Amino acid sequence: MADIRGFLKHSRQTPTRRPVPVRLLDWNEVYEDFDQTDLKDQASRCMDCGIPFCNSGCPLGNIIPDWNDLVYKDRWKEAIDRLHATNNFPEFTGRLCPAPCEGACVLGINQDPVAIKQVEVTIIDHAFEMDWVTPVIPSVLSGKSVAVVGSGPAGLAAAQQLTRAGHSVVVFERADRIGGLLRYGIPEFKMEKRHIDRRIEQMELEGTEFRTGIEVGVDITGDDLQEQFDAVVLAGGATQWRDLPIEGRELNGIYQAMEYLPWANRAQQGDMSVDEVPISASGKKVVIIGGGDTGADCLGTAHRQGAISVHQFEIMERPPEERSGGNPWPTFPMTFKTTSAHEEGGERIYSVNTEKFVGDGQGNLRALAAHEVEFKDGRFEKVADSDFELEADAVFLAMGFTGPEKGALLTQLGVDLDERSNVARDSDFSTNADGVWVCGDMGRGQSLIVWAIAEGRSCAASVDAFLTGSTALMSPVTPSDRPLH
Predict the structure, then answer these.
(1) Residue 483's pLDDT is what?
(2) Residue 315 contacts by C-beta under 8 Å, 6 or more apart in sequence?
(3) CA 396 – CA 365 distance, rounded (Å)
(4) How far apart are CA 376 and CA 387, in angstroms?
(5) Residue from 91, 37, 11, 26 nearest 303 by CA
(6) Which CATH number is 411's domain given?
(7) CB contact set of 152 (below 8 Å; sequence gap of 6+)
(8) In angstroms, rounded to a whole number, what is the distance separating the alpha carbons of residues 26 and 31?
(9) Is the pTM higher than 0.85?
(10) Backbone φ, ψ for residue 148 (5° rounding)
């Protein structure tokens, strides 16, 4: 244990966000640097519990008390080794994961939990600064080949594990750059893309091959993959977005979040200037439908593009400030949260349903007609006399995803789907198609980045065992595992 009185001496502290007027002038990450002395104080709050619920709260099984102790003792090299033992990409999870580990922290029963996520991201950032993140080259090559379809966190985790196990791995990505939703769905202010680039460089040096601009099922068929590779891993994500097919949906000015967000990222990658993006909130009255993380991404992007106003609709009621009786520790706390984007402005409206989109008579969006709702007997019911109209020039639909796209690839491979329209798999992530496995959101459904990486690692272990008869790779989860919420 780092400091037996640390949790009594220090309260929870996290980095300060840059002032709103300053950070809205750029697209850089929103947090200021965090002093290492303060970080050691936070690590010292870890109680090294006899039963560390943080470990089970994390799908990756991160050995959190160990690296808290190592950080406190300034043993940073050992800390990154311990962190990398369970997590391929802590620079991603440390920035993007909602930290179910913190929700399960024992200290969180009666205090604010340990700042686990901040310790994690500082360990990996320090490791990169010290050039400790180097290629892990396999000592023996297996002579087996694996195709990984999709380069999001699940696909990258599976690819890195399989490459390190000695297999020849090719990652196929239909976009022009590697990263999947990490690249084009996550705004720059949440994670600068340099973090992806340096990880890809490491993976290439390890031997992973990346092929971009190839849509599997179109540019190369599923049959071709099965003929050319000894195993195929499907990691294409749950990219079939949920639509809102109500009156006026055909009007100009209504977009899916993933039709909107990638353009801002492309501008930051240098593909075009900020003023050249084809879908922008600049000078517009914006409404975002959906109150989750994707909606917040749209919100922060709209602020930086210069929206006149932004309203965010959520059909659910406003979450409570504290855990409810039905949401006890160590389940993930379903409480009210203020992201950096919400801090920057905009108005959140809860318990509201959009009834129709209203046009201007020339095919363009003019307003939304909506009403309040309340949840009764398992359904949303309209609140009498609660109708209202809100002017809007642009609407971004951020209502989640319904599973993988049902394109040519799934048909060509002949994989079965489960009752939730995801690719069905058994206990070792294999599908009904010979030599084909699936991991991440494509098989699990829309979920957290930490689950994607965990499934990628576990899937890789199953593929490795199939190819060689045994495996030394870690398998943190099974398809039947469910989060604690």
Answers:
(1) 63
(2) 351, 352, 353, 373, 380
(3) 12
(4) 19
(5) 26
(6) 3.50.50.60
(7) 179, 180, 181, 182, 235, 236, 237, 440, 441, 452
(8) 13
(9) yes
(10) -115, 120
pLDDT value at position 485?
Answer: 45
| C-alpha span between 302 and 341 (Å, rounded) | 9
Q: Would the CA dihedral through 33, 106, 450, 419 be positive or negative?
A: negative
- Tell me, letter by letter, the H, E, C secondary structure of 281-312: CCCCEEEEECCCHHHHHHHHHHHHHCCCEEEE
421: CB partners within 8 A, 6+ apart? 240, 402, 403, 404, 406
Segments in the chain below pLDDT 70: 1, 482-485
Note the pLDDT of residue 471.
Answer: 97
The number of residues making up the chain comes to: 485
> For the chain, what percentages of helix, strand and coil (3-state, to nearest 5) are there?
35, 15, 50
Provide the number of structural domains found in the chain. Answer: 3
Residues 392 and 406 in one domain: no
Domain CATH for 71: 1.10.1060.10
Residue 408: domain span: 145-239+402-468
CA 467 to chain centre: 30
CA distance 356 to 370: 7
Q: How far apart are CA 322 and CA 340, in angstroms?
A: 20
Q: ∠ CA 219-221-225 to the nearest 5 degrees?
A: 115
